[in-house]
Amino acid sequence: MSREVVLTGITTTGTPHLGNYVGAIRPAIEASHNEYVLSYYFLADYHALIKNQNPKLLQQSTFEIAATWLACGLDPDKVVFYRQSDIPEIMELTWMLTCMSSKGLMNRSHAYKAMIQANEERGKKDLEEGVTMGLFCYPILMAADILMFKANKVPVGKDQIQHIEMARDIAQKFNHHYCELLILPESVTDKKASVLTGLDGRKMSKSYNNTIPLFLPEKKLRKHIMKIVTNSLEPGQPKDADTSTVFQVYQAFASEDETQEMRKKFEEGIAWGVAKQELFELVNGQLKDFREEYNRLMDDPAYVEKVLMQGAEKARAVSVPYIKQLRDAIGFKKIERLSE
Ligand code: TRP
């Protein structure tokens, strides 16, 4: 029996933070240990190009994110780990799918509508300002990523579910018009995926500027943790664990037992400074080896490049023959005597 195919795209923008680690990187790497699934993980640099048009930064970001995932334990021998732009077949499929996608479907894309709305709110005359065709057609590229590798399941955040539905729509249209070659994907959203709270008590997010970057040097990590907002309760006064960011972040890294112990300490009135120190020790203890490996990888670009090239080779072993089948189906084939 062939294994179920699970595929995830990793956006190559920004510096990964603890929220990304807890909410996406750690669960994805854990899931990749399941031997009953074949996992594809790729660095979505074609997607990144929509936002990032600085060549140096684009390259840098891809390198950093690749090193991050490898450092956190993604095993490139067990999964297919590749850079999207190394697979030209994805681009070719994108065009085939573009010609099967109605413009009306793209008009309904949340990301596009959000841009239009933002322009409206800012009182812009041209509501399409800043909307490139790249942004507009983003869902088609994403459909190609998924359909290229016959993915059955696509783990995504809630904001991406619409894109998977669009991929299904487009695939159905292709299958109906040509022949049943594309596999319809399903989205999976992890209901218990943790959302981490940031320094200011809101969701940890790049856009709120309240993150703790994943691979800060030890001293800086400690400094960031000390900056987490708390209340003015004194040592000895009982503290509410459930409304505390310090506790919430602690819990995301702690075992069940450690969490219970910390909860007790909160009830007993642990001083904020002490709680933060314990949080630092816990997080640092878990990230230390990863950080070391990350630094080692960042010093060895040739190795990271080699891993990605090997990943591309594995991916293309699938995409090259498949695109040939698809080309055939749409009529890109050798000219020969027309059949009657
Ligand atoms: N758009 C996704 C995000 O912003 C990243 C992505 C690109 C992706 N291609 C994909 C995710 C294919 C799943 C499948 O998170």
Quick take:
With 340 residues, the chain is mainly alpha-helical.
Sequence of secondary-structure elements: EHEHHEHHHHHEHEHHHHH
Number of domains: 2
Largest sheet: 3 strands, parallel
Strand order of the largest sheet: 1-2-3
Task: Spell out which ligands are present.
Answer: tryptophan
Multimeric organization: single chain
Question: Any idea what the CATH superfamily of the largest domain is called?
Answer: HUPs
Distance between the termini: 40 Å
Considering the chains and any ligands shown, give keywords for the structure.
340 residues; mainly alpha; Rossmann fold; Tyrosyl-Transfer RNA Synthetase; 2 domains; 3-stranded parallel beta sheet; two-stranded parallel sheet; 14 helices; 5 strands; 8% strand; elongated; binds tryptophan
Task: Give a description of the structure.
The chain has two domains: 4-194 and 301-330, Rossmann fold, CATH 3.40.50; 215-296, Tyrosyl-Transfer RNA Synthetase. The chain contains 14 helices and five strands. It has helices at residues 18-31, 45-51, 55-71, 88-98, 103-107, 110-121, 133-136, 138-148, 161-177, 218-226, 245-253, 256-267, 272-298, 301-330, and strands at residues 4-11, 37-44, 80-83, 153-155, 186-188. The strands form two sheets. It has a three-stranded parallel sheet with strand order 1-2-3. The protein has a two-stranded parallel ribbon with strand order 4-5. It is elongated, with a radius of gyration of 23 Å. Residues 7-9, 11, 44, 47, 142, 145-146, 154, 156, 160 line the site of tryptophan (TRP).
